[in-house]
Amino acid sequence: MCTGDCRSVAGLLLQYSGYVGDAATQTSAALTAIKAMYVYIPLILLVCSIITMTFYRLDKDYDKIKAELDERRKNAAEENKTEQKKAAREEVSLA
To answer: 3, 10, 43, 68: least surrounded by Cβ within 10 Å?
Structure first.
């Protein structure tokens, strides 16, 4: 899906810049659009990624999250055992 969207955006950018596919030379606007697609836009997206990753806190909170998940699994397993014992007692009492 993203690949198709990116191709559409690239096609529109080239179309609006005056790109002519079979021309021997391109207009300066078309060359600028090509340069934007290969240099400026990726550079902007890279900077956005770097900024986003500075707020990425999972590495710092990993141990806390893992301990919480382990505790939840332990509690769920204990509850499951309790329910199984209760169901087994009910079966015995019904038999």
So the answer is: 3
